[in-house]
Amino acid sequence: xxxxxxxxxxxxxxxxxxxxxxxxxxxxxxxxxxxxxxxxxxxxxxxxxxxxxxxxxxxxxxxxxxxxxxxxxxxxxxxxxxxxxxxxxxxxxxxxxxxxxxxxxxxxxxxxxxxxxxxxxxxxxxxxxxxxxxxxxxxxxxxxxxxxxxxxxxxxxxxxxxxxxxxxxxxxxxxxxxxxxxxxxxxxxxxxxxxxxxxxxxxxxxxxxxxxxxxxxxxxxxxxxxxxxxxxxxxxxxxxxxxxxxxxxxxxxxxxxxxxxxxxxxxxxxxxxxxxxxxxxxxxxxxxxxxxxxxxxxxxxxxxxxxxxxxxxxxxxxxxxxxxxxxxxxxxxxxxxxxxxxxxxxxxxxxxxxxxxxxxxxxxxxxxxxxxxxxxxxxxxxxxxxxxxxxxxxxxxxxxxxxxxxxxxxxxxxxxxxxxxxxxxxxxxxxxxxxxxxxxxxxxxxxxxxxxxxxxxxxxxxxxxxxxxxxxxxxxxxxxxxxxxxxxxxxxxxxxxxxxxxxxxxxxxxxxxxxxxxxxxxxxxxxxxxxxxxxxxxxxxxxxxxxxxxxxxxxxxxxxxxxxxxxxxxxxxxxxxxxxxxxxxxxxxxxxxxxxxxxxxxxxxxxxxxxxxxxxxxxxxxxxxxxxxxxxxxxxxxxxxxxxxxxxxxxxxxxxxxxxxxxxx
Length: 665
What we know:
- By secondary structure, the protein is an alpha/beta fold.
- Among the domains are: 9-177, 3-Layer(aba) Sandwich (Rossmann fold); 183-244, Helicase, Ruva Protein, domain 3; 249-368, Zinc Finger, Delta Prime, domain 3; 624-661.
- The chain has 27 helices and 14 strands.
- Strands 2-3-4-1-5 form a five-stranded parallel sheet, with helices on one face. It has a three-stranded mixed sheet with strand order 12-13-14. The protein has a two-stranded parallel ribbon with strand order 6-7.
- The longest helix is centred in the C-terminal third of the chain and has 22 residues, at 621-642.
- This is DNA polymerase III subunit gamma/tau.
């Protein structure tokens, strides 16, 4: 009968030397230097989560101290002490489990043996694992020995919860905190092991194993053993996903696509699919939060997410279509909804409500731009793509995308004859402007919905025929009148950031549509409240640092945006780009910068971009206010010093004037 001598990977590939220990370079460096210089402490404390190498490090340190070649950071591994410590039968090396031996009696027995000299090795080494489990009396019993042990005794303590260890014990130990393994380090180590084990694998499978290990190399090796058995020695992403029950990222990408398209039914369908596959909705929300965090990182720090991420293309595409503010709210909803699943009638309901809560934050403008568009005339349908597909199509073939986008024009969309808006008094001299006006007017703010032009405009016609059509519309009796169409009320409407418009952080592109509200035969243009149009606005080409101070005061901005504006100095404007100087580089906040850009665009009535240069802002609102305050302070101090009553007090009673207590009125 044969015996199976197979060792699990966690035991077979357990590090035997400092060089083979993965991910704990800071601890290895400190211990190696101490061993080289013979500056040996009598007690070490290793802290860290499970499976990061605390006990392994203790065994390597024990071999370094007892190796027959001498005290060295590179034990030979072949002498009696090294081999017996690896095998767990060295008489002068004792591993003590405090979880099952936590009483004062067990500790007293251990300390009684410590007084005797080692039988074989150079030192007696006691490794106490999970030392925080010891009772209070056991800690008290070991304090004296731990502080002044015999010269031949070394203590190595290991714990996953150092907060539970008394400070009197902590102060007697040299403490090292072992880090969790980063996923990249786990993947690299698994690749090395699997190549030597001659097991096939792919990068996605190892990445999923590294994520499931949660920083523990031992857990990663145990999961790898399980994956080898499950997949038949061919570790693939699909096999690991099925084994762990993790959710395919494609479900989450579809979820965000349906969310940005405003498709509630699509969200419910995805939840139903997850239920049929037996996936955990708690894990789904956890993975969704992780995906949203990657998208947010890509928006703020483009290029940080590498192409090695399986969802790299989807992350890039979604980062272009989800507003950063909405993204933060989606993330908050995902993490809070996960904790609320226990309060829901069931996880399915909790997940759907989380999706609908996110859907309520998607602006109607963004939904209409990303949802299918159906024309009312001639039974034709123009269907837009999902946000990700839309961006991918543009990236793959810009020329083809531009041609297909230009095909959707006001002339190809049938418009219902309900709210016609044309001025009867339009003269033939302004035909070009009038045609542009008619083609751009829509009845819904910021939406590609239904507008009104004659049916004949739905076909391709020459400019001459188009002019005749416009003239016919102008003379018809069915046309409503706009009494006073002036340059002021025909000014373009630039929406503020909180209306859901997507900006790229630097540029503010004015919307393609104008909004004309018709009430009692009169029209007016909508103007955002954040930066009201001013009749005495300073022209952009007349701007100076002093003029910038007046502009900032007139804008009356609040919060972070106002502070950035008050602490900034005007540099100049070039190619519709405003350059400001500001002291703190961290002030380049995406949402605040976008809001300031919008306010400047509304003030100067022209699309602008905004760039920050970092340095001392000497001509800012804040600097001017501080200079004025200093002048007032000096004036107040001078007035006090010249006051006859104050002078009399100083002369008669030797009173001292505390200048810091003087405040200008």
